[in-house]
Design goal:
The complex is a heterotetramer, with two copies of chain A (419 residues) and two copies of chain B (148 residues). With 419 residues, chain A is α/β, with parallel strands linked by helices. Chain A contains 14 helices and 17 strands. Classes of the chains: A alpha/beta (419), B alpha+beta (148). Chains in contact: A-B, A-C, A-D, B-C, C-D. Chains A and D meet through helix 3 and strand 11 of A and helix 6 of D. The structure holds pyridoxal-5'-phosphate (PLP) (2 copies).
Chain lengths: 419, 148, 419, 148
């Protein structure tokens, strides 16, 4: 472990990690890819806001309204800085990453919008990949069904990498948008953005990144990436549920039609027409997740204080350790890259003749080890590998090598039960 | 350790050595049921016949499936409990089994009705697994209805 | 005040009410129609969940996942019981009331859906009212613009009541849906549902109620109301921000196309198509507001324990007191009904030659009185009364007659400053 | 009491007795600005002329508007500070006033440049009201640009 990174000190910030489960089991939480735990700093920021400063934002002139507005808009500043957004006005708060992805999908093929880039109809194409989370598949399927456009996708190689060999045939003049996952929530694979982006630029397609699994784990700089849209979610980055983020280039956000209509997203309303607020407010209809933004701001502060590079380094060491340790389990089949290059701390696998649900159940029941089992909202990827489900271990800043040792012991026990 | 109550020896035995597995001819009805949350699947065929007692009897239940030990063992136990029995009696087992599964661990199982299926009592405490245990039984009920 | 209702005891549950504002001012919060304050019971339920039970819902088999799922789905049960929903599966959690209204609006005119009732195109009509919140105007404007349908509306009478005299001409065979506010967030008016519903049934139109301002303040029974959809929002009913509710008849929810696509709203996904989960999950894409649902559940428990009838009675007494007390302010013009019949505790008014922003600012600066000033997201209603803005006082269970006395003193001072 | 710093006597005076109010002919440009968050509106006309010193001077600023005391008083003060002055000098006042308003109460106002407009210093502490104070000034700047 790196010397500046004190995982034991970090663990003390997460109250749930010292919880005892029923039956006296300690909690070993290896499911952060599903949702991360929250440090006291986040929990307290939310409690304190509700107990002493809460008011609705934007609309109120009074002290509480000002304090809440300042906290809410302050969170926007923090998130913008965290991902290197050129402007704070490019940060749209949504309810989760899924809403952010849907918001962009709904911007296409809307007769209200006359911008050519967001036109969508028969003959137009949308490109995704076979390793997407359902939240980056279904919105585009629905868009294709609404508009008559065609959905296409990059295949995945046997070792869990994006197969870019058909890039030029897949991304063509017909492509309006390419939306792909930055880091896979099953394979751990970190996808190469540059070649896809270069091809998209050649043909005039927009590029969206689902960064739900990368922003929490590594320094992501949206300006350096050069894409058009990025989606991520608060609950996976030690922040609260109920808030997600869409980052988009201002010029595109301005060109897009409004999505949800209502209070706060307007400039002026008459019964028969409306004009809309400037971005980002144009996309934030109704009372936003105020307390959740305060929590997300605290989460960003927390991650920044620990250091995204240190977190990444820690996870890399844990991943190397885990990949090594899992090798000793007979018959374990890794689904995803076995090398450390361009991969994060998400490790999915199968065991011969033992269903992942049984693996997960025994790990949890006997050892208090929380892993995720199933298709992890990436059923097509599992179909591609010919398996109905996997067991997934996902690591974060508060995990330790001792927890991985416990996992390995647990897996040995699982094999014994079903031996 | 809680797991002991879920993974009874009998369940593991049926999982490792499933009874009556495979799809066979002839059959009156075939159904395919899926548990979307965990992907467990079962294809089940039922063949009924008239019994010597004048009632309808279960001539054969054949199935193929994939899923966790609970769902697979449930199909195997179901095979043993139904084949050769009166249809009405088996439907009573289905009802009692369903009641047990939805009882959140608070329902006292009727062993006389359930026979070996009583080994699944522990599953009722795990809401996420109840559907696994019920998959084969719901498919069976469906297939019987379609056979009539 | 009624004898069973102890407002001083209730005030102790809301920590913010004992806060001292800068300059030593006490807080007098008369802005609950904008957003309500949260009792310790809600704040603590959320804190406790994050500190000891948090996991993602639906997807996880482990202890934390089960506990979170149980808490989340338990909140659905509580909300269903609170509004008399025939089935818990008819409760859809959204991010706020605005999303709930948009969800229904987006169900119309979607080529994916073949149900006649949700078809929408030129010649079809949508009926709203002139007293709607922007969140029940703009979604329908956008729908009309997307589909070529026509938006029409009920006018409002001089004393702030819905003008139903043209009901039969307004709601006709062309009408697909009537969406109207249950209790106005400006006038306080509680609208008569029955005649509108009867006419809608006659012509085969659906009926949606925006109950954002009624559910927090009176017993609302959706089955007794007999409408098709009801929207409301957590933050106005002593619950957290970040969560809203759509109730809809199951049969309609099942007939509607999906809205947001993603994880949790699916049954099975292939790259080229998907099948969808049963309601309510079909409409809950992505990680839902988990901690917020826990908070909303606690809010419902709190309101139920105090008693909705007692709350309603208390507010009625306060409203009568306030309407009487405000009469002594020279020139004050009430916008909304001056009698207590079918009105809630929301009181909007203007003062001659003093702009509401100045009223609000002085009340806040000098007396710590938080009211809302502006058009309250109901600009068309203000246009109808020929005024750009009003000052709005909105009362809730924790308000007192002493606070109304302070308001009256404050208004006298405002008049002196501008006298 | 904090309010004292916002509602200066001078602001209230201008609000109650606005200077130069009303729309007059002739004019070089007319603009209409709205503050959507609070609904404040102003219509403003500007007439420029060549001064004796060779520079451009402000011949008249006329306006109609509705809104809070801050926005209305700002227009009245603006009228007094601009009419008869060199255009460049007035634009310098606009810049200094804008800087003051965006200073969140931390900026020391330059009284020599601002004159009576210094009475608005307190507004800078109220982010929600800054736009009210700036409405007339932004309209003025816009109108001057369109007049040239
Ligand atoms: C009548 C009415 N409808 C809808 C809304 C919108 O609710 P939300 O801001 O939670 O979306 C509000 C409150 O702002 C309201 O008062
Ligand atoms: C890669 C990826 N994309 C999208 C999502 C959806 O995020 P949310 O559930 O916050 O909408 C997730 C997590 O569930 C994810 O892992």
């Amino acid at each position: 472990m790196s010397t500046t990174f004190d995982v034991e000190r970090i663990r003390k910030d997460f109250p749930i990690l010292s919880r005892e489960l029923p039956g006296g089991r300690p909690l070993i939480y290896l499911d952060s890819g599903n949702s991360s735990q929250k440090p006291t700093q986040v929990i307290e920021a939310m409690r304190e806001h509700m107990a002493a400063h809460y008011g609705n934002v934007g609309r109120a002139l009074h002290v509480l309204g000002s304090e809440s507005t300042e906290a809410y808009e302050g969170a926007r500043d923090k998130v913008a800085a965290f991902i290197g957004a050129p402007s704070r006005d490019e940060i749209v708060f949504t309810k989760n990453a899924s809403e952010a992805l849907n918001l962009v999908a709904y911007s296409f093929g809307n007769p209200i919008c006359t911008d050519e880039r967001f036109a969508m109809g028969p003959g137009d194409e949308i490109v995704i990949t076979e390793m997407e989370h359902h939240s980056n598949i279904v919105p585009w399927q629905l868009l294709a069904q609404r508009t008559g456009a065609t959905l296409r996708w990059f295949p995945v190689t046997d070792d869990g990498r994006l197969d870019l060999s058909g890039l030029d045939e897949l991304v063509t003049e017909r492509t309006k948008i390419v939306s792909m996952v930055h880091q896979s929530n099953v394979l751990g694979t970190v996808n190469p953005v540059a070649p896809v982006l270069a091809r998209a630029r050649e043909v005039g397609a927009l590029v969206m990144l689902d960064a739900s699994q990368s922003v929490p784990h590594r320094k992501v700089d949206v300006a350096a990436l050069g894409v058009d849209f990025v989606a991520f979610t608060g609950h996976k980055m030690v922040g609260p549920s109920g808030i997600g983020v869409l980052w988009g280039r201002r010029e595109l956000l301005e060109a897009m039609p409004p999505f949800l209509g209502g209070g706060e997203m307007i400039e002026a309303v008459w019964m028969d027409r409306s004009t809309y607020a400037p971005v980002p407010h144009k996309f934030e209809a109704g009372t936003p997740p105020i307390v959740e933004a305060v929590g997300l701001g605290a989460a960003v502060d927390y991650l920044t204080a620990v250091g995204m590079d240190a977190i990444h380094e820690h996870e890399k060491e844990l991943t190397a350790y885990a990949l090594g340790a899992l090798k000793e389990i007979d018959g374990l089949r890794l689904i995803g890259p076995s090398d450390l290059a361009d991969r994060g701390g998400t490790i999915s696998f199968t065991l011969p003749d033992i269903h992942p649900h049984d693996v997960g159940q025994i790990l949890d029941d006997v050892f208090g080890i929380a892993v995720r089992v199933g298709h992890h909202c990436a059923r097509p990827l599992h179909l591609r590998f010919g398996i109905p489900a996997t067991t997934r271990v996902s690591l974060y800043l508060y995990n330790t090598t001792a927890e991985i040792d416990a996992l390995v012991r647990g897996l040995h026990h699982v094999k014994k039960v079903f031996g | 350790m809680i797991a002991e109550s879920l993974y009874q020896e009998l369940i593991l035995e049926h999982y490792k050595h499933p009874q009556g597995r495979g799809l066979r001819e002839p059959y009156d009805a075939e159904v395919h049921h899926v548990n979307p949350t965990c992907g467990d699947e079962i294809t089940m065929r039922v063949k009924l016949k008239d019994g010597a007692d004048g009632g309808r009897h279960v001539a054969d239940v054949s199935y193929e499936g994939q899923g966790c030990s609970i769902s697979q063992a449930a199909a195997s136990v179901l095979y043993e409990l139904t084949v050769g029995s009166r249809v009405e009696d088996t439907l009573q087992v289905v009802d009692e089994f369903t009641r047990l599964m939805h009882g959140r661990g608070q329902v006292e199982p009727d062993e006389a009705v359930l026979g070996d299926a009583v080994a699944f009592a522990g599953v009722a405490k795990y809401p996420a697994r109840v559907k696994c245990a019920l998959l084969a039984w719901m498919a069976y009920k469906d297939a019987v209805v379609r056979s009539s």
